[in-house]
Amino acid sequence: MAAHKTPLIASVLLLAACLCGAQLKLGPAYHLAPTARAQTRPQRIVSIVPSVTEMLFAIGAGPRVVGVGNFDTYPPEALTRPKVGGLIDPDIERIIALKPDLVVVYGTQSDLRTQMERAHIPVFLYQHAGLADITTTIRELGSRAGNLKESAELANQIEADIAEVRKRVAGRPPPRTLLVFGRDAETLRGIYASGGIGFLHDMLEAAGGVNVFADVKRQSIQATSELAVARAPEVIVEIGVDTASSKARNLDAWKALPSIPAVRSTRIYQLRGDGMMNPGPRISASVRRLAEVLHPQAFK
Amino acid sequence: MSDPCLTVERASFAYDAKALVLSDVTASVSRGALVGILGPNGSGKTTLLRLLAGLVSPLEGRVLLDGTDMRTLRRRDLSTRMALVPQETQLAFEYTVLEMAVMGRYPHLGAFEIEGPDEIEVARDALRQTGTLHLESRWFNTLSGGEKQRVVIASALAQLERRLREPFSSESGEEGSRNRFSEILLLDEPTASLDLAYQLEIRSVLARLNESRGLTVVVSTHDLNFAAGLCRELILLDRGRVLAAGLTDSMLEGTLIRKLYGVEVDITTNPRTGRPTVVPVARAPDAHLS
Amino acid sequence: MTIGRKIAATYLVFGLGAVVTCLLAPLVGSTTIDFRRVFDASVPFAENADAQIFFVARLPRVLAGALVGSALAASGVVLQALLRNPLATPFTLGVSAGAALGAMLALTLELSSGIAGFSAVPIASFAGSLGAVGIVYSLARVRHRGLSTNVLLLAGVTLNSFFSALILFVQFLSDFTQTFRTVRWLMGDLDVSSYAPLVAAAPPIALSFGAFAMLPRSMNLLSISDESAASRGVDVHRTQRLAFLSASLATGAAVSLGGPVGFIGIVVPHLVRLLVGADHRMVLPASAFGGAAFLVACDTVSRSALAPLEVPVGVVTALIGGPFFLWLLIRHR
Questions:
Q1: What ipTM was assigned to the predicted interfaces of this complex?
Q2: How far apart are the first and last CA of chain C?
């Protein structure tokens, strides 16, 4: 499997969040109250969630990470750790065999959670939410993992970077934007766009854009061609789309709907690359990339 | 006795390479005859009937209809001269009685032709002949066993009716010699799943049709008394071979029955019906039944 | 009323119903559009949002619904007659499982090189369906040249199970986005947003309908029994082959176009039989038209009910199909 899976996986986790329906927690990601054992700095951490794995390495807890998820590919050191499964199929035996003292679990993985509780292994619960929750999570993770200083630095840096982007684009008229994170190659079928809540939406707003689907109170929505025309975005940004076929062919599909302002003015952009959709430490870079595309003038 | 209309000449048949179901069978059915193919289960009765109907071709030998090898006849010719009434008719869909009868007319219609009022009248007339016209709007599946069989016989009659399409081709009765083709009704175990009353009904319908319009009737059955009551001739089939063939009275004879069924029987003539009655008495010592 | 008139009336009434539904459907949607503007030739198409919604977003979708709906309903009728079972569906014999496997593989392996503008998924899906048909057909061909319907059914059921297992395996190997995409594909999606897929799906479906046109009388006879049909002059083997292959072809093309939308192949024929009786000369055309109207109507609900959200059309047909069968069951008691 190629390296560009991660953004897709992250998008998947996002979709999983909205698919599971009820879990629209937009408060800070929560975690279990630490047990007596977890008062000391955890020495063997297992993380199945790609963005949290990134966070762990970024705050300096990397050496103490003993197991990662199947789709955790960043940073490169993560690839050296044993893999313990994915969102739908965490390998519980393997996790337990690694003798962890902290396991990062995704909010919907109730089975895994129960198993960890039974094995008396402390868990750190995480679930995708808004942009601000990323830094909140970093701080909480720092507290749990015993890297308070580094996590505070990282969180502050991220917040500062994002604030800087906001400053740059402030005052400029925000273009109506369609943020697409999934589409069947070469056609306009199966278009999935960011809805009005979630970190993708927050990213878009921070980058100085207006989400055409801001009114939809869901993290994602399937945009039919009718909706795309009706919402008339001025800019279309595609992230995490299929990279196997040539760029040119991929964007041609939009030509079927020339009444969309973005198509007429050819303001359709593809932001490829790992981490674009990952709500992790690299999020500020993603916000910046987005802003550069929406307001090129502000970054000259 | 008039000329033969159905002839089987030294026919053999097998469904697969393992065993011959029929071997070296020679038999003949005359026009206007009422013939019964008699034998225990597994003797090849149904297969012989299917051979006669042209549904399967013999591996060896041949089957002739009105003197012509059936393999050379067109499907349409076969189906307008012979009609088969299967043992049971179970419908998956709710056809009405009239629709069932009208389906008998399909072999006469052109490729995309739709039956007109004339064809419908033929179908209704056929229903009338079997006493089922009053059921024409009923759904077939809601009828009793006897009624169902009579409707299926009616649809077979409708199938055999050629006077609409070939007005000069056949007249029944004494002008048999003017007939170019015969009308043959084949029935496979027509009373197997019927109550006694319905058995009598079917018997009388068949006898009446045979008498009034010279319909040739071939019935396969394992019911000795039904055959005795209805048929004028019998073909005894024993494990795929013809044991004997001839008039009913000659065929219903102790030695033959013992050979065929492995049973000692008492054969008497019933004073009320005037027909032979066969009563099984005991297993024969040299019984060969499996 | 003679049968000829009844048949003509059936074509007229159901045909009209289908045409009216297809004319009204593009007028309805999640967005209000101005119809004068849609047909206003003075506005260049590239700037006419209303026209684009009508001609690019809605019309192809309605036509796709008509094509898929009529193909699935008609195939359902043909297979029910072939198998002598009113509970048979176009998916009973494994065609849609093959199509699903093809689509899954295309989505999972992320095959993106389509051919001449058609994306890989429908092509792979159609190829999968043809493969399934080939397998079932060769399994069912018994020594004596014919198609044993029992073996056909068994082969179809076996293939369904086997392919479903393969599908699950492919899903297991794929990452979550792909799994989601494949699950979504299974729910049906008529938003083709271009005429190309319609042009691609039309020839096999038209071919099948050509074959269907020759079948109704034979189907009446065949649906009673092989023997009855044979003794009435039907070439049973040829008719079975024609019925099976044409119904499978239509189903394969329909599923490749819109995904395996369920219940049309069984609800519509049932309803039609309640209205016109069992004669296939009426049931077949009425089901074809009825299927078109039914699916177009469901798709209209699918894109309007929870606007701007879209309820997958297969979910809508299932939500209708379930209670329908419950009602049938109660009615029959």
A1: 0.88
A2: 32
